[in-house]
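Appendix B.2, paired examples.
Example (i):
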Amino acid sequence: MTQILLIGLGAGAVAALLFASVASGAPLSLLLAHLAPLPILIVALGWNHWAGLTAALSAAAGLGAVIGFPLFLGFLIGVGMPAWWLGYLALLARPSANGAGASLEWYPVGRLVLWAALIGTTMVVSRSW
C-alpha cells in the first residue's frame, strides 16, 4: 500500500508540474501541458487504478494549494479523472466465458475508444458554454 501511495504521489507531482508549465509562457509549455494525463495513465496501467486515483487527486490538490481552487477543479475534471477512468477501464477483466482455464476477457478496445471520444466530446461541449 505504501508503494502505491508513493508512486501515485510522484506521478501526481509530475502531472501537476507538466500542467503548471503553461505559467512560464514558453511555446513548448503547451505541449507539456497536453502531456499532463500521461503520468496518471502510466501509473494506473503499470501499478493499479488506486495509484492512478492517488496521482490524479494529489496533482489536483497540489495545483489547488499553489494556484487556487478553480485550477483544482479544472485539473480534476478536465485531466485527472478522465485519465484515471480510462486507465481503470483498460484494466477491467473477467474470466473467459468458454471456461478455458485461467484466460481473461479484457474490456473491449472499441469501448475504450468510445469512452475516450465521449470524454473528449463532453470537454468540448462544456467548454463552449
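Example (ii):
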Amino acid sequence: MFTGIVQERGQVVDLLITGDGDDGNPGSARLTVRGASVTADVAQGDSIAVSGVCLTVVARTADTFTVDVMAETLRRSTIGALRAGDEVNLEASVTPTTRLGGHIVQGHVDGTGVITARTPHPGYDEIRIAVGPELARYLAPKGAVAVDGISLTVIDVTDLSDGAEFGVGIIPETRTATTIGSAPLGAAVNVEADVVAKYVERLLVVRDRERV
C-alpha cells in the first residue's frame, strides 16, 4: 500500500522486453530505475510504486533497483513506453509508522489518461486529464485520485461522449517534486481511482444481481 506522496524523482536506466504475449504485444519486461532515496532501505521482495504502479524489487544495487513487469501492467499503464533517461515518480510502500499524508493508494493502475490542458493560477496550476468510460464512472468532485502515483483531489468532472475530463490542482511543491510539473500536453499518465469507489460499485452490482 502507498500514500501517493512521492519520495523522489527517479530515472529509468533500462527497460528490457523479456517476452512476447499471445496478442503480439509485449508479454513481460524487466525495468531498472535509479533512485538513491527509495533504494537505500529496500530489499529484494519489497514493493515500490513507479509512477503509480506497484512493482516488486527483484534485484538492487546501491542506488538502483530492478523489477519485473507482467503483460497486464504493460497493457494498463505507461510503463511499456518508458525509455532510458525518462524520469519517474517513486514511492516505497508504507510501514506501520508511516504518515498517511495522501490517501490509500494500492498501486494497481486502472488505466491511462491524457493531459489536455494546463492553466496557471496564483499558487497552483490546474491540469485537466481526459479518461475513457472505464475510468470516468469512478471520478467525483472532491474525490481522491492518483495520477502517476501522486495523490490528488478532483476539482471537477466533465462528462463526455467518450468518457470524462477532470481537473486537479498542482501546487508548487508537487510541481517540483514530481514529473507532472514538466509533463507536456498530450502526455499519457497512469490513473488509479479511489479503491472505495470500486468496492461500492462491486457491492451494488452483486446486490442488484441477487435481487433478480
